[in-house]
């Protein structure tokens, strides 16, 4: 799988951001708290929905905003896909307004159907497995460095 483009509106610290990922290695660097992890979390959220978030749906929406949307373009097994997820605040709750996956075989609509297709058909792994193979969370590097050989893989 290759992420090709990520567009964010009101997702965590990102008011309006559009990133294109070129071929090769992409390095994301910055000060602590600058939003590096939020970019990866946005990709995971696009793929798996709320199960991929470190917090709640409310935490995903930029403070003061009533809605957010995340669009992720990616290539998998030589085929192009685009996932769109939109959240909207209504009173004290936040819910999914729109969730679609555009792929070579058509459009899949609905948060549950998109999550199931991504996890069961496309990537064949749940959100936790994908996250664990994709990156190391903040604070986990020291745990791995200091772990005994027998416990490092746990």
TrEMBL record:
Keyword Transcription regulation recorded: no
SUPFAM superfamilies associated with the record: P-loop containing nucleoside triphosphate hydrolases
UniProt-recorded Gene Ontology molecular function terms: ATP hydrolysis activity
Keywords, in A-Z order: Coiled coil
Rad50/SbcC-type AAA domain boundaries: 5-141
Source species, domain of life: Archaea
Family membership noted in the UniProt record: Belongs to the Sph1/Sph2 family.
Protein name (database record): DNA double-strand break repair Rad50 ATPase
Organism: Halolamina pelagica
């Amino acid at each position: 799988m290759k992420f090709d483009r990520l567009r964010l509106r009101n997702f965590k610290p990102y008011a309006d951001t559009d990133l294109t990922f070129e071929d090769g290695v992409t390095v994301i660097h910055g000060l602590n708290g600058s939003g590096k992890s939020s970019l990866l979390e946005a990709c995971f959220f696009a793929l798996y929905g709320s199960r991929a978030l470190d917090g709640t749906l409310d935490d995903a929406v930029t403070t003061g905003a009533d809605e957010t949307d995340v669009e992720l373009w990616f290539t998998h097994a030589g085929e192009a896909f685009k996932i769109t997820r939109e959240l909207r605040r209504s009173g004290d709750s936040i819910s999914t307004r729109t969730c679609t996956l555009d792929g070579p075989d058509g459009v899949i609509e609905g948060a549950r159907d998109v999550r199931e297709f991504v996890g069961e058909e496309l990537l064949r792994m749940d959100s936790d497995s994908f996250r664990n193979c994709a990156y190391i969370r903040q604070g986990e590097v020291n745990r791995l460095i200091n772990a005994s050989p027998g416990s490092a893989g746990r």
